[in-house]
Amino acid sequence: MRQGITTIEVKSGYGLQVEEELKILRAIKRANDQTAADLIPTCLAAHMLPRDYKGSAKDYLDLMEAALFPELKAQQLANRVDAFIEKTAFDAETIRPYLQRAKEMGFDLTVHADQFSTSGSQVAVELGARSADHLEASTAIEIELLAHSDTVAVALPAASIGIGCAFTPARKLLDAGASLAIASDWNPGSAPIGQLLTSACILATMEKLSNAEVLSALTFRAAHALNLHDRGKLAKGMRADFSLFQTNNYQNITYYQGSMQPSAVWKNGKEVFSIER
Q: Which candidate, 13, 115, 104, places its Cα nearest to that of 64?
């Protein structure tokens, strides 16, 4: 909230058992009741095949689909389902029925796509996913697919910094006509920086993004990736979620690469943070 982030997607995916995934999602729900921010839960049970799981990847996904999906609906724990499509996780053919079933049950889809190899963004586009996250390995083929779809391309520059890999080809995605959002991917394994504006500004430098492209990627395009249409813009009828910066030039927000932080933050029209003036 002090960074001006008032809507936060939070993913499960670190339990990899039905009860453990439910435990994480219940914790997210409880946390949402205790903060002025909006926490948007996403079920990432299809993160990896557990090392101690005795069955196949299909068996694991069938179990999650049968035992977990109904509980997500019954307990109102998440309306978003995610999957990591990768050679070391779940391949495209194996994951398709799982995501298709989630879609049939009314879940929004998002895909952890093209981080180290391609195929994930193709599945995301084919199934109408709200977003395809990562995309560091995307080639011209995947860029064109995303550009001619309604799937938002989500760059996670902090992950590139954390593990030392290429950045999402944000410039090429935008030039092709894709909708680009930028998120933090804040996690202890690959993106511990936890500074969205800093990592977005680094991406802007490396990918030659304009101020407008960065700011839109952090606001209304990010909201669209979460299927939220009541925030991300200062307009009549929208939620009054906004931040103030002590500067006479908005370009300084990105120029200072995250060292300029908000002096005040509003959520739903209420001031929730301010620096003593």
A: 13
